[in-house]
Amino acid sequence: MSGGQVSLDRRPVLRGVDLTIGAGEVVAVLGANGSGKSTLIRALLGLIPLSGGTTLLYGSPPARFRQWWRIGYVPQRLSVGGGVPTTIREVVASGRIARQRRLRLTSAADREATSRALEAVGMADRAGDPVQALSGGQQQRVLIARALAGEPDTFVMDEPTAGVDAQSQQLLADTLTSLVSQGKTVLLVAHELGPLEPLITRAVVLRNGFVCHDGAPPHAVGAHALPGHDHVHPHAADKPLSPLDWRPTP
Amino acid sequence: MIDLLQFEFMQRALIAALLVGLAAPAIGTFIVQRRLALLGDGIGHVALTGVALGFLTGTAPVLTAVVVSVLGAVAIELVRERGRTGGDVALALLFYGGIAGGVLLISLAPGGSNSSLLYYLFGSISSVSVEDVWVIALLAVAVLFVVVFFGRELYVLCQDEEVAKTSGLPVRFLSLLIAVTAALTVVIAMRVVGLLLVSALMVVPVATSQQLTRGFRSTMLLAMVFGMIATVSGLTSSFYVKVPSGAIIVVIALGGFVLALGLGRFVRRSRPQESSP
């Protein structure tokens, strides 16, 4: 996945970010609230239009990307919508959607993947319960299970640790450990790393819409004390705008 | 029930009632899940202009209603997609335009008056013609086909639009599909309960069934059962007691909701561990 440049949401949020995630990396996007972490990964996936620059998913722009089954997106929270009840199994099974064809019945492979995903997050015994009855941490586990069920190569997680109890955090760490050992790529946004810290191979710290650190995960302190220098990654595919040249539109 | 079936108009009415009771809650489940419970109302208002247009041009009002309400539904969906703020005002403008346009056009139609609109506003199932039954059956099959064929994708879309996007689903197409299917449902339900109460059949059975169920699929299936019970029992009672069928159908549906509300409380209380974290 090779990623993008500038994103504006009326006001500049990302002022020129170069980021390339290689296969097998475990990357954490860190930064203070409002530094544009979530915006970054949503822009990478094409969920937010870029106002400048480009983003590529496995070499193609999101609008022309066809291999969505390779990506498992875990949103910040489960949206329970208009209140129609839905079971944990239904939500997790819907993670198979990118691998399913219309009018094809749910296959044995679908069912197995769903069960494995439920098993992995420790929710198998509650599969028939409505998701509405779950706590925040449990809902997070359901979301992760949904992504697991799709068996993607790359996981993109938006704040998987936010508002999650210690037990669920540990479970998330264990799940990630096994994903990493399978060679999966993980890109996650986090406010604090907690038990995930030993897994992270690379940290990207955002500050005021710029990448102010890209490299080894900053340990404990220091992340916020880093000088605001721009770290331009050498193998960013193409750079229509250099971060230093960029001027916000008035 | 037997003597009622001797009348041909009642046979036609029953078929229409069954089909509407089946189709409306099916698409309604997705609409409620998407927080668009009032979408049906909006389309209903717009459809009135379509009905009046039919009178004005001398074509079948059902057909013009299909065309206009589909256009209206697409417009509503585009407005919804664009604007995060001001969307509800834009929708309101469309609703008023629909009603005003309908009343205006019907007054221009030869021999047309507001009373010809009343059949469509409040429904008159006993006046359903053979052609009407065919149109209703065709549209109901189309609605059910959409639900079966695209159900899995619509479920993901209604759950979380961004997840639908990152799963590679054609989000805009599916959104328009829901809107258009809702428009077709409005038109078939218009003869049974009337445009002003159309939305009730899409929303109330779903609201009833979600008091009792735990899953999405079971909610939808139960809502379809409730929908059919409401339309058929409403129609039957309107045959014996002289009351308008649309109103009694909706009142029965609402009565079912109140019952389910109480029953649901009871059911949930007997499942103590469910709400534990």
Structure description:
The complex is a heterodimer of chains A (250) and B (277). Chain A is of the alpha/beta class. Chain A has one domain (2-245): 3-Layer(aba) Sandwich (Rossmann fold). In chain A, 23% of the residues lie in helices and 18% in strands. Chain A has helices at 37-44, 88-93, 108-120, 136-149, 166-181, and strands spanning 2-3, 6-9, 11-15, 19-20, 26-31, 71-74, 154-158, 185-189, 202-207, 210-215. In chain A, a hairpin with a 2-residue loop joins strand 9 (202-207) and strand 10 (210-215). In chain A, helix 3 packs antiparallel against helix 4 and helix 4 runs parallel beside helix 5 (166-181). Chain A is globular, with a radius of gyration of 18 Å. Chain A starts with a strand and ends in a 35-residue tail after the last strand. The model of chain A is unreliable at 1-9 and 220-250 (pLDDT under 50). Mean pLDDT of chain B is 85; it is low at 272-277. In chain B, helix 2 packs antiparallel against helix 3, helix 2 runs antiparallel to helix 9 (198-209) and helix 3 (61-82) crosses helix 8 (171-193). Chain B is mainly alpha-helical and 277 residues long. Chain B is globular and about 55 Å long. In chain B, 79% of the residues lie in helices and 0% in strands. Chain B has a single domain, classed as ABC transporter involved in vitamin B12 uptake, BtuC. The interface between A and B is large, with 40 and 34 residues.
